[in-house]
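Intended use. Records like the one below are meant for learning the mapping from a protein sequence to its folded structure. Do not use them to infer anything beyond what is encoded.
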Amino acid sequence: MILLKKVLMKKNYTHSIIITADFKEKYIIKCIRSCLIDKNSEVILVYYNLKNLLDLKKIFENKIKFLQMRNKLNNPVQDQLYKIKTALKFTNTENIYLCDGDDFFITKKFKIINNKLDRDKIILHDFFIQQKKRLIYLKNKKYKKNKLYKFFFNNWPDKICTSCIAIKKNYLKKFFFKTQKKYNYLAVDALLVIF
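Structure written out for the chain above:
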């Protein structure tokens, strides 16, 4: 079912980052480097096919785990869930960060979020976007925080994407167990919000 290319033996990581990488060749090197800035990051790159795999192995051979899937599901949403669920089995930490191969993590992220994960099971946090070579912080809209607005109009988070999700490992396992057959075509971010 899968082929694990490289397993790192280091055990003192504080968190694991699962990167889904198919079709992200243009950004994946920058993505991995942003994850490795923090020395406590265990990085698992999960993919079916990457055109620049040899380059990635040359650069990151002993720094990350390469997890190659032997098959790819036709539905992209289901394929991503399948990859995350499979990679979860190879993590050695309790704090799990999800990441798309075209996203980047800022340096302070892990310290801030790990502290919050000590109190909470899941964190759906804000994010920065790159605009004209600058990082711009996208704040939540104030009216989205209003309880009346949430009750009467829309309780959906203001912004959410895969790379804004940090979660405890046992909670993610529970999520996969309970949502395996429900809502087959919703993305992982939407599923976790519902869960």
